[in-house]
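Thread: quick sanity check before group meeting

JM: Hey all, I'm pulling together slides for Thursday and realized we never actually wrote out the predicted structure for the chain we discussed last week. Dropping the sequence here so it's in one place. If anyone has concerns about the input, flag it before I start.
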Amino acid sequence: MSNTPMAANPLTRAVLEIDEYASGLGWDQPARLFALVDTARLRSQEPALAAQLGLQDESETVGLTPIEQDEIPAGKALDEFLGTIAWPDAVVGCALTVERLMLPPSAESSVPENLDEARLAQWVASHPERQEVRMTVAVLRDGSRDSALRLREKDTPTEVLTGPELVPGLAEALSATFVD
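JM (edit): ok, ran it. Output follows.
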């Protein structure tokens, strides 16, 4: 993940690393879940795993290492799946990357009323102003959050939008995985 731009803090850097990883896999991918672990702690407590991940030679003393989890079960709603997760203490945060269709705010006024979820998804998919977007959202146990958005039509590392409040609903759902 050497092309990841320098980021202001470890969480932003982890989000950008995951975004870069997902970008390398191409589009039309399933959602992917990552545990975030403290890199220095991982190197000291799990040196074999750190070596397997290529972390033994890193000079950084602070940072987060994303570790991809098992595949999210197909056919299970994302919110239902997230409700089943409990993280061990060694996991300081988590991240999710998922692709969705988005409409501009101007399209909200034209949404037909009384559509069920399936018909609304169909309507959005056929809307001429739809945009395919990949969202990468990460949260830490302490409540910190960050996210990255990449539009399919502007799929370059320099066109990735980042910020803590870009996908608040998904950030809240991920934060809930740390509530006892």
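AS: nice. Residues 30 and 74 are 8 Å apart (CA to CA). The radius of gyration is 17 Å.
JM: adding both to the slides.
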